[in-house]
Structure formats: structure tokens, C-alpha cells
Amino acid sequence: MTAILVVDLDSVFFEINGETHRARLDRVPANGQQVQTLCGAVEKVAYQEPVRQVVGQPIPWCRRCRHLHEVDVAAGGPRPAPPRYPPTPHPRQVIRRQLEAG
Ligand SMILES: [Zn+2]
User: Fold this and answer.
1) Between these two residues, 11 and 89, which has the higher pLDDT value?
2) Neighbours of ion ligand 1 (CB under 5 A)
3) Residue 77 domain-assigned (yes or no)
């Protein structure tokens, strides 16, 4: 027998710098694969163990991702996944790169 892990893609989210983001996914991303969040952040996925309990806990949502997800839900469901490597960086990434560059 095999226990098949079933993942609801609408319930997958990503933590980046303490904020929780959503993405439009067509499959579960592989470890190390880049994903783009609804708000435009592009980061590599990293699976970490142990997975902490999130059910019943407050989630520090990214405001833009939460808004865009609500728009998707109101429109009848998530829109198709965007291209894999979009050119628009998240504003925080732009600021971080500027700070790192001096
Ligand atoms: Zn976000």
C-alpha cells in the first residue's frame, strides 16, 4: 500500500522575512525551485522540518497577497499560474539590492 500525500494548492503558502505570501500554483514546487508570490516576490522554495503547527494560529499575511487572493476568490477561483520567471521583482527585493550595493 502507498499513502499518497494530497496537497491542496490553495492551502500552500510561503514565509518570506516573517510574512506569509500566496502564489498561483499549478503544482507543488520542488525544493529549490523559484516561485513568484501574488505580490511579486520571487524566491527559491526551501522545505524545512519540522513543519510547525499553523492551524488555529494567527497568520502574518502579506497584505497585498491577501488582497489579491480575495480578488481571485471573488472572481471564482485562482487565475492560471503566471509564467515561471516573471521580470518584476518585489519592491522589498529592489530595496534590499540597493542597500547591499551601497
Ligand atoms: Zn505577498
Assistant:
1) 11
2) 21, 37, 39, 62, 65
3) yes
Distance, CA 49 to ligand 1 centroid (Å)? 23
In a domain, 33, yes or no: yes
Q: What is the pTM of this model?
A: 0.68
Question: What are residue 90's phi and psi, to 5 degrees?
Answer: -65, 140
Cα–ligand 1 centroid distance for 23 (angstroms): 8
Gap from CA of 84 to ligand 1 centroid (Å): 16
In a domain, 1, yes or no: no
Q: What is the pLDDT of residues 43-98, one digit of tens each?
A: 999 988 766 677 777 889 999 999 998 988 888 876 666 555 555 677 787 888 88
Triad 52, 54, 42: Cα angle to 5°: 85
* Number of domains within the chain: 1
Q: Taking a C-beta distance cutoff of 8 angstroms, is the pair 22, 35 a contact? A: no
Q: How far apart are CA 77 and CA 50, in angstroms?
A: 31
95 is in which domain, residue-wise? 9-101
